[in-house]
## 1
Amino acid sequence: MIFTVTPNPVLDRTLTVPAIVLNEMTRAQKIREDGGGKGFNVSRALRALGMQSVATAFIGGATGEKLALGLHTLGIETDLIEVSEETRTNIVITDAAGEQYLKVNEAGPYVSGTEIASFFARVADRAQAGDFWALCGSLPPGVPDDFYARLIGLLRARGARTILDTSGEPLKQALNAVPTLVKPNIPEAAAWLGHPIRSPDEAAVAVDNFLEMGITLVALSLGAEGLLLASEEIRIWAQPPDVTARNPVGAGDALVAGLLWALMEELPLPDVARWGVAAGTAAAMREGVSVGSRSEVESLYRNVALRRWPSTT
Ligand SMILES: Nc1ncnc2c1ncn2[C@@H]1O[C@H](COP(=O)(O)OP(=O)(O)OP(=O)(O)O)[C@@H](O)[C@H]1O
Ligand SMILES: [Mg+2]
């Protein structure tokens, strides 16, 4: 069984206006709403690959209900903790030409100590050996930075496996609790290390630093350059074919889904890396934060190149 955890889900609302003019009333020509939240994205990408997961989250109010309905419509099972404040809405206002935009992100609802305790009780109820839990994204106000660290501790004690995809202080603390797999991108890894990563060699060193924490699998995603997947035994650089990326936002979540899918299928690590990159790249090629279909991912999979890391050629 796979569980995804989205502490701070979001409804993305995009308004298209003729032009962005300040201090004047304007009318929206087009309104688009997309359910967001990184763990929810992972559940959607898994669904597209034909794999079920249970999406867990803190949700609140009518916005939370809308997000839950969106998941149910896709056939995704949920286990949601209701909070008293409203789930956030992030707004993008973009001009019709697509040249300028304003993006306003909300912090998210305040989550109380009691609501956090309910979540942990729910996890303790459901956690079983061998399951995968994907812990994804930022934390809403009220949720302490050690949230993922505590969650990993609980899940490890039950024999469940964890995939961590977050940033900043929550990442730092969670790494000390030793997740099974960590999926930083380059800026997240650099922030954790405290210095920039400017070359493949420096990325290789960053991977070593994560492995030294005792983490079984490190997946350092490199945008258009693909993925470095490493364990103590093996190091793989999986590169996508040359494609046109339309919207790489959320590609990392699709990558996590591809890795999870292949790990559940118990495929060898080079194949795990290829599926991850194929799923990530399929998402990057699409408009909006959407995921590729199974057949799109499969055809990319066949064209993912595997290399040694760092490149010695
Ligand atoms: N421009 C691109 N061209 C081809 N593939 C891409 C591109 N950008 C991203 N990808 C694919 O998506 C994967 C994840 O991308 P990236 O490293 O940007 O993740 P991320 O920064 O965590 O993204 P997010 O957090 O927005 O989901 C890459 O490993 C690659 O397979
Ligand atoms: Mg990411």
## 2
Amino acid sequence: MKTKKILITGASDGIGRVTARELAARGHHVIIVGRNEAKTRRVAAEITGKVDWMIADLSRPAQVKQLAHDYQNRFECLDVLVNNAGAFFSHYGKTSDGIEQTFALNHLNYFFLTDLMLPLLIASNGGRIVNVASEAHRGCELDFDNLNGENKYSGWRAYQKSKLANILFTRELAKKLKGTRVTANTLHPGFVASKFGHNNAGLWGPAVRLTQALFAINEDRGAETSVFLADHASVANTNGEYFDKCRARKPSLAALNDDAAVRLWQVSEEILTRFR
Ligand SMILES: NC(=O)c1ccc[n+]([C@@H]2O[C@H](COP(=O)([O-])OP(=O)(O)OC[C@H]3O[C@@H](n4cnc5c(N)ncnc54)[C@H](OP(=O)(O)O)[C@@H]3O)[C@@H](O)[C@H]2O)c1
């Protein structure tokens, strides 16, 4: 078996942590990204196999750029990028770059890191990009006049739209990747009892915990589709699909809107111009 170099964001906890553990157990070299050094070091130490760690606040494009730069200097090649870091913010907030935090972390981070790592993935013998989205994408459309959430903000709506953006981005990316040996796919991990949502004050935190205790699957099962898309031979040539429980599934009609995908790509490029 060929050992792959696999970069996994949001791997200091939850689904990303288990994804890293499972891929390392299969003999791959995993490079985990967290934002808290002590916690990320601890998680790396718990993983059996070849593991390295890196630190970045992925809601800050300058730190995404620095991460990509440092990765290229340290590791030189990359076979799989798993964009997994994400969060739900019940209250409106902007990063210090002036970008709404859900959009910055859940979408722009995937978009920018992928773009910066693409030369290494293209140089790999069959690179893969795995973008963790969600079934939460259903029931909404992107509002290009309010991407920064300034006119009206609902935390859940912002989260839904960011996950819709993950699928639109992946589908457009897959088209652009035709002619290379790199594939891009996206997935729903299931409703998972991770730390997801626990960051929120007030009733949101306890409400999420209770719902998870009643209905959620554990993190091991939550990581299965990410591991499958990162490593399984049967999906080596699959490109631009949305997966749930390791099977391709049709996403919402809004996620199949090619015009929205093109527009999102253009807007994302424009926002990121000042960070290049
Ligand atoms: N849990 C679910 O039911 C569910 C369902 C559908 C989709 N998802 C998606 O699955 C992905 C993983 O979520 P999870 O459930 O595993 O959540 P989680 O347990 O909260 O883990 C999130 C990970 O992202 C990291 N992270 C958060 N903000 C960051 C930032 N600004 N910069 C860098 N890293 C950051 C966290 O770091 P720390 O360790 O420092 O907090 C952690 O490693 C997300 O994209 C989420 O949207 C989850």
## 3
Amino acid sequence: MREPDAAFADPRQAVLYDTFNGDDRSDLDAYLAIAGEVGARRVIDIGCGTGVLAIRLAGAGCSVLGVDPAEASLAVARAKPRAGLVTWLHGDATALLGRNEAADLAVMTGNVAQVFVADEDWAATLSAVRAALRPGGWFAFETRRPEVRDWESWDVAPTPVTLPDGRTAVVTRTVTDVSPPLVTFEGSTTIGDEVLRSTSTLRFRERQEVERDLLAHGFTVPDIRDAPDRPGKEHVFLTQRQ
Ligand SMILES: C[S@@+](CC[C@H](N)C(=O)[O-])C[C@H]1O[C@@H](n2cnc3c(N)ncnc32)[C@H](O)[C@@H]1O
């Protein structure tokens, strides 16, 4: 499995994730709603990052396991006030194998599904998620629609951002390669004399391709939704272990 990007794995960058992604995270509301909709009690958040959704789900009464291969992001999650409500696991979804979780719901938010560039990483993740669900358990995740070409608006000229401690960071982002289905971009964050860099490559899968892969890994696809906060840009797959 590919190592997580520096943006998540470098402690100096992981600690900035919540500042750069906003406090309200309205994108996560849809997943809280799905947990309620399917009556989930045991939930696994795969690629939980800094734990925003995992902690919200636990606060709503779910038993939650947050899984992420970036230890630095998990450290941010573990330091949060209600982090003790969640069980944290360092690793990718294959770390779930053999744990007999029998979860009601697994989620992957923040377009985690796009980090799986290699077919074998995507396949290993789908197999591991399936094994971690009870029969009939749900798997909900989002992925950006390739035809929208969202990356065309991803470049960010040097922009100052005020950090919680009052310092100013200057952030930039540049898309460096578009080779469909892969898009690569580089981000930099300058704080004083320190320049923090991260390079990411994301895979944009067509809706039919995702459906085919899900079916091949033992999921049915009862529903494919729009992301309420990003209408027309993403598909939210609501799938179920056969
Ligand atoms: C954009 S962040 C999303 C974090 C969180 N889900 C959210 O919504 O804020 C992508 C996350 O995917 C994680 N990740 C990278 N490779 C992964 C893998 N192979 N399996 C699971 N998660 C992975 C990263 O460490 C990072 O925390």
## 4
Amino acid sequence: MASSLIWGQYVVVKAEDDRSITIDNGAVYQEDGVIRDVGPYDVLKSKYTPDQVLGGPRFAVIPGLVNAHSHGRGLTTFQLGSVDDALELKLIRDWARRTTDPYLATLFSAMQLISGGVTTVMYNHIQAPPDVMADEARTVLKAFGEAGLRVAFSIYFGNQNRLAYDDAQLLSTLPADLANEVRGRIQRLEMPDEDYLDLVAELHRSYDKGADGLVRVLVSPMNVQWCSERLLTKSREYATRLGAPIHIHLAETVYQKLYALRKFGVTPLRYLHDLGFLGPDVSLAHAVWVTEEDIRLLRQTGAAVCHNPSSNLRFGSGTAPVLPMLNEGVRVALGTDGTSMNDEDDLFDEMRLALRLHRLPGIPVRAPTVHQVFKMATVNGAHVTGFTSVGTLETGQRADLVLIDLQHPSAPYLSPNVGIVELILARVRRSDVHTVVIDGEVVYREGRFPRLDQDAIVRELQNNAARDQEAALAEGGRMAQRLVPYVQDFFQEWDHSGVEPYYAVNSRT
Ligand SMILES: [Zn+2]
């Protein structure tokens, strides 16, 4: 039996909407990965004889953070040569992006997440060609397992409209040689829906150990415009049968909303609702272009939103109406989409942005509270990933926690009036993360990962990213460069002047 007592000047037990439960000079006692007791340090110290004591009066103990939307490529898309653009164009320009070995990339990504205080990640694997999809999935899961990070794993899968939101129409506008080349490229991803869903079912059987385990396997149809109705319906059926949560991108850009309005006469969210797709086991990444009626449907069905403010700003997608969602009682979690504001996947920065982005002018200022934002990155993230056993430091929960060194955030002076959650949201950064414990095990301490040879991983990843990929990149780049003007023309014809802007929903709270 391995036990430890984790001690801090503050213990943040649980975030609620308008307050957080905290203990001054508190401690958490865990045995074999389960929190057995939480309370004043002096009391717990005399009650238990742990194998190890971590922390001290210089620290805050907080629940491990949950990054609720990530594609975890290790190096960011920017580092791999893809600059920011509107999402619909970036997805084409990504054809000239360097690739990296999934094992090394995942190990590196896990190190980035853990060193930033993240103990659980919603990892959404980008669809690979069918001949490598299963191997890639197992490789990624192996790497997360070696890093000791808790992961809600899914493969992002679509079966249509890989170029624009009507591929047949777009292809008809291309010169014949380009159309042929492009068709060849996208055909490489073709795979029967059942093969994907059966793979998910197999991964679920092999890896998913439920809410107390380290791995959950989710079903992840890509998005309304990228999935046939049959794929969405089948995905829902499989998820129900497996007892697996669903993670889907939705209404990220105005064109995605327009797609559903033009094709189905309703918003993407209403469309999913009418299909019987939504429920408390569904989380929607982005949900930027939703209406007030959509927000009511979210509340009624219990479906949650994974908010990615940096990513939405970087791709010019807009800003999700988070304040109306919170006011309506919708569950909102927080993610970085691997595309954070400082390109570092730092969830503290993401919390800071989420806190400040939704402030509406006037007296009083209407804004999410620090506690609501901290709840997004802990309790709500735990819910959407299917790990209800984390996100708080209550007795009986799994022991995922982070020691924050308060020296820098409170130097050279901090008013005693400042609350610990306020301080975390205002001033804490990745560099203040001292120790990270996942399932009772120290997986990060003072810049080192006891489970990993971090220098070797970084060196090998550097070499791997820098390997000669010039021929493939040049081919993809040339094709993308020719294609982008046609994609631009395609969307230019989609008049979005009649679509209610996202900021109108944002401002009516
Ligand atoms: Zn995403």
